[in-house]
Amino acid sequence: MGGLQQSYQPDVEYSLTLAEISRCCGATTEQILVLTTEGILSPRGVNPRDWRFGSADLGRALSALRLERDLGVNAAGAALAIELLDEMQQLRDRVRRLETMLYER
Amino acid sequence: MDYKDYYSVMGVARDATQDEIKRAYRKLARKFHPDVSKAADAERRFKELGEAYEVLKDPEKRAAYDQLGRNWQAGQDFRPPPDWGAGFEFTGGVGDTAGAAGFSDFFESLFGRGAGFQSPGFSRAAQSPGRGEDHHSRIDISLEDAFNGATISLQLRVPEYDLQGHLSEHLRKLQVKVPRGVTSGKRIRLTGQGGAGYKGGPAGDLYLEVWLRPHALYKVEGKNVFINLPITPWEAALGGKVKVPTLGGKVDLNIGAGARSGQKLRLKGRGLPVAGEPPGDQFAVLQIMAPPADNAEKRALYEKMAHEMSFNPRAQMGG
Prior knowledge:
The complex is a heterodimer of chains A (about 100) and B (about 325).
Chain A: E1 7-8, H1 18-25, H2 29-37, H3 55-71, H4 75-103
Helix pairs in contact in A: 1-2, 3-4
Chain B: H1 6-10, H2 18-32, H3 42-56, H4 59-67, H5 105-111, E1 135-141, H6 143-148, E2 150-161, E3 167-178, E4 187-190, E5 206-212, E6 219-221, E7 224-231, H7 233-238, E8 240-244, E9 251-255, E10 264-267, E11 282-288, H8 296-308
Helix pairs in contact in B: 2-3
């Protein structure tokens, strides 16, 4: 059975249209438009018809939608939370590195 | 199945008001939300919380739950009483609160199996008819695999709803060729590997969020890689060439005379490769190691230094 396992080649660089990212997140295009207006998402392209969202946008959209749904915050609140969480993650990585480098010997 | 104490999950008294319950939910939801909390059990706690709130926020469900009595202990083996549900009417299916998969068996035995959950990324309702849903999951890879690229075997737990709307899971194994230069937080896409299409429509896609496992030797920050590099006091004082391990193999590093502990030396481009960007750098952080004076000759050498070198590292401290 194990030998039948197929091996898949993923796309690393891909871009999603407004309709595609909405479907992928289980959201409406209006919700994605609002997230973009709040600056949570930064698609390439000038008008919504030409927008192309990348992999990082997808992660942020999923996070923002979960925060909105579960915590009762609006898009602006989700935007603030996501920016603070990004910053916390960077600080966490840095603290972890500095700590292990200081104490590992 | 195990009895669940929803009041203790939410940390409220049995006579808490609906306002108190809502406040407790908001507070705990912020604390355990998997997008916010980094605690290992955040996801489980958050799911438990969502289930407890689903019951306690709804006066009908709460009254029915209260009717079970106060004598149950969390985790105690539970079977619903024979006359269960008489006189109560539960409106609607399961709401849209937290939780990406189903609630517990305990919940389902009391309130029935709800119609699944509308969770971003786990939505059952396809937006365009025919096409299967997109699925999201996570893949953990080692730093070496991120650097070199690798084929990773993956086991996915795929939730499935049967015709009656019952939720079950099956294991799906697949192999993914992760290309070189995929770093933490990146989402890679497997076209057509998501949910099956409806009525012959195309399948959805599978998105995998990549996570790097921590490494014993290398510490990663973004695309830069850090390593502690131990050197001898004479290498530090006189300078010299030393071998440094990097993800791409050993390289020579020139240490200038008068090097200090904690000094960061950059190996340009020796960090993680990133598609469409210049690669990260590796930084070697110098650590001067003093050899132990574990025999007479070494002790004599140290004593000679103590006599002949006038060196006071504490001069700045007035020591």
